[in-house]
Structure formats: structure tokens, C-alpha cells
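User: C-alpha cells for this one?
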Amino acid sequence: MRKIMLQDIRLHLDHIAIETPQRAAMQEFYCAQLDLSFVEDGADFVALEGRERRLVLVDGVAQKLRYFSLASGDEGDIGKARGLMAGHVETTDISGAFGSDGFCFTDPDGIEIRIVKPSVPNKTHSGLPGRLQHVVVASTQPVEMGAFYQNTVGMRLSDYVLEEDDSLMASFLRSDAEHHSFAVFKGDIAVLDHFSMETNNWNDVRDWADHFATFETQIFWGPGRHGIGNNLFFMVQDPDGNKVEISNELDVLKDDAEAGKWGQDYKAYNLWGEATIRL
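Assistant:
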């Protein structure tokens, strides 16, 4: 199937919405430890914003990505994108948090993908630098999910991982020049794996680790350097068990870069040592 959308439109991750059964505790964690501030709320959600990072917490189950929003630097791209999607997926008008008007559609796992008008990121908010950059999920149908994001949405495949029997383990996909905006791993259930914030330099990564230490929040994985994407990283967990990644030096790729092929080797996930293997 022809790639129909994002090959010609550059989109970046604007914000994500994750479900939670404990919205108050999650809001307290993200405001205190990720330096987010209250923006707005409703009957079943609260919207939070920090320094180039936005998050919506929605009442629901733990470790579930409700939706993610991709934005363009050009408002005219919204109409162009919707025209390209016509006849391929069913689209719906949305008016979301942060004034994010646009349209949405769903992927094979039921995750809502929102294409929204450009907004101005808050770069003056207090707190450490950390731009919301990518989101990763686990799926029971990684082949179908990877194909949807490549062939229907039109993201470019940056890297993929195969198991010993050559079945697909993971796909890393990009909507702009950065290595991945979205990735999907094979899993026993469909869940949110992690989301990532990109910093400016290695010192920022160190400062984030020190910052979490003041709250006695321990590093879940890292520090290390991913083979896939080549970025420095560590991860912590929020009260629901969602993994939050602090990253730096994520690869930037040309449009015609060939996708990299990886096996189930620790180096794919952490060049510095033992990897976390998704099951």
C-alpha cells in the first residue's frame, strides 16, 4: 500500500494522554518530579504542561495510552493531512487540551492518533529541559501495528528488531528527522511501554538523575546508551508503573536512510550493558 501521509508532512509529538486509576497521585508525581503545572481539567481528565512537555491524565486503567497528538509547524498541513487520509481511515473532528484542534483516527490497537494545529511550546517554564519527543507501546499484534504506521499513516521505518525465528519484535518509526516519534514492541498485552523527554546535553541527564534522587525516586533502568537510536538514557517509573525516559543525543536521520535490522542482542537496547527484553 502507498504511504499516504507523513512522507511529505513533518509532524512532532505535541502531547500524550495516558489513562490512570489514581489521577490525584499521578498529578502530584508529575507536577513535583517532572515540573509540570496545571492547565485545565474536566470531569475525567487533567491537562499539565511544563518546559516543552505536555501531558493529559485521563481516568481509566493503569499503563494505557489513550491518545497521542502530532503537530505540524504549519496550520495548513492539518487540512492537507486530512485530505490525504480520506478514504483510508475514518476521521473525526476534535477539540482537545491545549487548544489542540484538528482531527483523529485510531490504530489497530484502538489508540487514538490526533493530528492537531501547531502550538507554541512553553520554553520559559521553570524546571529542567526535557522536550516530549517519543512514545512507545507494547502490542499483541506488532506486525499489524508496524504496517499501519508505515503504510497507512506513512511514518518512516528507522530500525526494526527480529527474534531468533525472524518474527518481528519491534519497529521504530519517525514522523520527522528524529530517529523515532513512535515505536511498538511485541508483548503479551497492549500497554504503554514508555515515553521520552529529550534533553540538551549529557549534563542535563545527570541533573535529572540528581533531581529524581531528591524525591528518592530510583532509576529503573540505566544510565546507558541505546544501540537503536544511539541515545543516552535512563528511566524512572511513575505511580502507575509507566516508564519515563530521560534522553539525549537521539539520532537524526535523512529521509532516504535505510532501516536498520537488529537481532535480540543486548546491544540493540543498551550498548553499555544488560538490556531489558520485552516479553
